[in-house]
Amino acid sequence: MSIAKCRRMWGLAGAQFTIPPMGAERPEPFTFVCPPILIEHEKGLVLFDTGCHPNIMNDIVGYWGDFWQMIAVKFAPEETLDRQIKGLGYKLDDVRYVILSHLHMDHTGGMALFPNAKFLVGSNEIRFAYWADPQQRQFFVMGDLLPTRGFNWLEVDQDYDLFGDGSLQMLKTPGHTPGECTLLVTLPSRRFVLTGDTVHTRQDLAEEKPMMIDYDPAMAVQSLKRLKQLRDQHNATIWIPHDIDDWHDMPHAPAAIE
């Protein structure tokens, strides 16, 4: 059976963070980015993650908590999600589906912008976000989550073909959180594996190294292995959204990937 293709895809700019050294786990300062990714399909726009809430521009500690007082953030008003989508010529209501890789606060900041969209997330992620284990609670922000309680949510407990045509597949890669997922995108010229937070850097992928805050490190390693398997099986490009080198190497809005 032939696989259909999405039309094009944009990486949207988002907040950039620099974290100071954190012991042996991260002995050097670590800079990462938080880009939402917008995908155009003939059946509508799909958004993969929604980046950070604009409140962190002026008061990151007040909105995200004390942990973030040692973090340097760069986030400009023109990089907010609504302005970027409108800058591409779309209305916010043109986004029909929002797929969340998971519900950590650097992925959920723009969710409230899309009350008419269908939201998809991996199984057990919503429960975990609202009632996380104590060591995980600081990574979920009620200011992002509570406005969406009445939205149209679907928790997916297995790999899920969004349009039934193979063009956009939501794949289970748990470990960072219980419901962490990856998106396999087929475009006219190439395929992408959008990793969400299944992995955070190219080095971590190469070494199959879980992150210190992962919910289940052993499960996270199995998901890292799956990313490589997906890459090889589909001759796909892995895009690690948090990796700043990936961000610089990929075209991003207003340029589209087709």
Structure description:
With 258 residues, the protein is α/β, with parallel strands linked by helices. It has helices at 56-64, 81-87, 105-108, 125-130, 142-145, 202-207, 217-234, 244-249, and strands at residues 8-11, 16-19, 30-33, 37-41, 44-48, 72-74, 95-99, 118-122, 152-156, 160-161, 168-172, 181-186, 191-194, 237-239. It has a single domain, classed as Metallo-beta-lactamase, Chain A. The chain is 23% helix and 23% strand. The strands form three sheets. Strands 1-4-5-7-8-9 form a six-stranded mixed β-sheet, with no helix packed on it. The longest helix is centred in the last third of the chain and has 18 residues, at 217-234. It is globular. The model has no long low-confidence stretch (mean pLDDT 95).
Task: Label this structure with key terms.
5-stranded mixed beta sheet; Metallo-beta-lactamase, Chain A; alpha/beta; 258 residues; 8 helices; 23% strand; 14 strands; 6-stranded mixed beta sheet
